[in-house]
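Q: My labmate handed me this sequence with no annotations at all. I'd like to see what the chain might look like in three dimensions before we decide whether it's worth expressing. Could you predict it?
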Amino acid sequence: MSAKVQATLLRVLQEKEIERVGGSSPIRVDVRVLAATHRELRRLVRDGKFREDLYYRLNVLPLHVPALRERKADVRLLVQHFLAKHGRRIGKIVPVDAEVYDCLEAYAWPGNVRELENLVQRALILAQGAELTVEDFAFDPDSAIPTESSAEAGHGASLRDDLKDEERRRITRTLQQCKGNQSEAARLLGMPRRTLVERLRSYGLTRKQKD
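A: Here is what I predict for the chain of 211 residues:
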């Protein structure tokens, strides 16, 4: 936001007046302002790139929305929402294979909710089968944000490989954190212990662990 726009917005918030383009007289307004940003405004204030007075005008009731990677339980609901939203628009209603949710919940989502919506929309448009499977959720190598796992796998790697790598690392870290206690690790990972045991077996992590 440019310095000029910041000054204009501050005036609107303080005076509760706007002036139409080409107009000559102010118009009184009574509005509530909801502002959102992914930038660190306090740092911008310190750097002189954002007005301090405007910051405090906007920062009346701050709400922190965690990144998608910090609220994996929302992934399933968001996928269903985006499927309904875009399915109605393009006239295509397709169910989702259960494995898709496991994989998507294991992914780190560097592009946050917008990346998830784009991925769901692309899968819905391109899917040819009777349901969406993991194979339908493939990154576009020209536009996807590279992750550590996708960089190792190379361009064109399927989302399945990326997600499995991410899930394997996540399980390993959690088990280390829990000192090998599978029950505690399963609780932190948000999955049944039986599912965790199956994942450990499939990833070759079947060393003896504590119960």
